[in-house]
């Protein structure tokens, strides 16, 4: 009786879309791309349970003569991405073994037996096929369509600008990574822009802005506070602002809570600032200008001044065995850099019976941009071999006072 009554082909069995308005309204947010419905379904599947994960599907069954059918039937529903896909290519399938049909009308909840994957509704074209056992799937398959106002949900689903601009798109890929301004996020959240500001955060009068010129923090006085607060219970804590190149750490500014010490580190160079007034460095210290300290300056190592590699602030030139009874010495010290004086002198043999009127003397003077030393020992009976020390100071650390007399730059 059953087979005789339904002895017709699938092509002649039609589903009248008489009461499917609700279905189309439900699917309106997924056409043409369906992200809004997908998001609602995803919330339910992942545990938010804010929206039921079911789709209400209604239709009407008629026989080949167009008469409504009644009874209990097995219906199978499949969703495809193409109207001509074969049955094995269905993206989703669900069977309802006992569907009550009254005067041709039926209603089922799709997803009641097998959840509908939210990711199905990310494309503009989806088709549903209905099979009434024992017949073949009915043709043509039905295409999901949108209700008029729900078409605007396309922007909510794709998270694009209302004008369709892709540069403002918010994209969520299959792994859950989010891209703003990019459809290929390289991090869990990536914000990309080539114009304007990529990020702005306002907190009262403080503003944090990121654009292609840099990162700006602005406030009412243009001098806002930036704080890295160490609120942990442990004492041995260190807060750092790190600087890197191509992902590699290069330098940092830090505060060490355990020692109340702040400092900077760049490779092997470290500068420490203690809260008791000490400034400490474990490497060379270069100063292009003045050093002013109201306390002690402690140096463990060499002190040089001037351009790199620098010069020692004090230079002592020892000259031995000068010519007897007169001569000039050249210590090879530039007058533009140093102020020099004769620090000490000594003689070799000295004639104690000297009765001449000569005077033993040593003096420093400048000639042709260099320091020279003049000597004169008046011993007559012995061969004197005087030796002297010339002491020179860098001009940056010495004051040459001519209050009580000028320097006489002359030779012998």
Description of the molecule:
With 412 residues, the chain is mostly beta strands. It has 4 helices and 24 strands. It has a 5-stranded antiparallel sheet with strand order 14-15-16-17-18, with no helix packed on it. A 4-stranded antiparallel sheet has the order 4-3-6-7, with no helix packed on it. The chain starts with a helix and ends in an 18-residue tail after the last strand. Strand 11 and strand 12 (206-211) form a beta hairpin. Mean pLDDT is 75; it is low at 1-49. Helix content is 7%, strand content 34%.
Show the helix and strand layout.
Blueprint: H1 2-5, E1 15-16, H2 21-27, H3 35-45, E2 55-61, E3 71-80, E4 92-101, E5 105-110, E6 127-132, E7 142-143, H4 153-158, E8 170-172, E9 178-180, E10 189-191, E11 197-203, E12 206-211, E13 214-218, E14 238-245, E15 248-256, E16 261-266, E17 269-274, E18 279-281, E19 314-319, E20 327-329, E21 338-346, E22 361-367, E23 370-376, E24 387-394
Parallel strand pairs: 9-10
Antiparallel strand pairs: 1-2, 2-5, 3-4, 3-6, 6-7, 8-9, 11-12, 12-13, 14-15, 15-16, 16-17, 17-18, 19-24, 20-23, 21-24, 22-23
């Amino acid at each position: 009786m059953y087979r005789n009554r339904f002895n017709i082909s699938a092509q002649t069995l039609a589903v009248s879309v008489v009461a499917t308005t609700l279905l189309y309204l439900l699917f309106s947010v997924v056409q043409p791309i369906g992200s809004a419905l997908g998001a609602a379904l995803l919330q339910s599947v992942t545990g938010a349970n804010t929206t039921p994960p079911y789709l209400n599907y209604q239709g009407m069954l008629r026989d080949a003569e167009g008469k409504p059918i009644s009874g209990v039937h097995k219906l199978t529903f499949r969703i495809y991405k193409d109207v001509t896909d074969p049955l094995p290519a269905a993206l989703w399938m669900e069977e309802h073994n006992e569907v009550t049909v009254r005067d041709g009308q039926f209603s089922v909840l799709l997803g009641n037996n097998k959840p509908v994957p939210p990711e199905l509704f990310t494309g503009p074209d989806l088709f549903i096929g209905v099979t009434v056992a024992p017949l073949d799937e009915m043709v043509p398959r039905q295409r999901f369509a949108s209700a008029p106002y729900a078409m605007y949900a396309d922007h909510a689903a794709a998270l694009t600008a209302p004008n369709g601009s892709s540069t403002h798109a918010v994209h969520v890929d299959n792994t859950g990574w989010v891209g703003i301004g990019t459809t290929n996020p390289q991090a869990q959240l990536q914000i990309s822009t080539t114009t304007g500001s990529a990020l702005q955060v306002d907190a009262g009068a403080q503003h944090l802005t990121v654009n292609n010129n840099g990162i700006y923090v602005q406030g009412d006085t243009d001098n806002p506070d930036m704080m890295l607060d160490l609120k942990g219970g442990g004492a041995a804590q260190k807060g750092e602002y790190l600087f890197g190149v191509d992902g590699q750490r290069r330098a940092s500014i830090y505060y060490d809570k355990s020692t109340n010490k702040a400092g900077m580190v760049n490779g092997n160079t470290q500068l420490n600032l203690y809260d008791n007034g000490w400034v400490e460095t474990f490497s060379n210290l270069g100063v292009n200008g003045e050093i002013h300290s109201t306390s002690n300056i402690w140096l463990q190592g060499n002190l040089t001044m001037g351009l790199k590699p620098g010069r020692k602030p004090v230079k002592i030139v020892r000259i031995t065995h000068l010519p007897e009874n007169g001569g000039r010495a050249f210590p090879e010290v530039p007058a533009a850099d140093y102020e020099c004086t004769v620090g000490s002198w000594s003689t070799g043999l000295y004639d104690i019976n000297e009765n001449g009127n000569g005077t033993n003397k040593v003096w420093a003077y400048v000639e042709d941009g260099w320091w020279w030393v003049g000597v004169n020992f008046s011993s007559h009976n012995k061969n004197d071999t005087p030796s002297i020390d010339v002491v020179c100071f860098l001009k940056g650390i010495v004051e040459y006072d001519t209050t009580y007399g000028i320097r006489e730059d002359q030779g012998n």
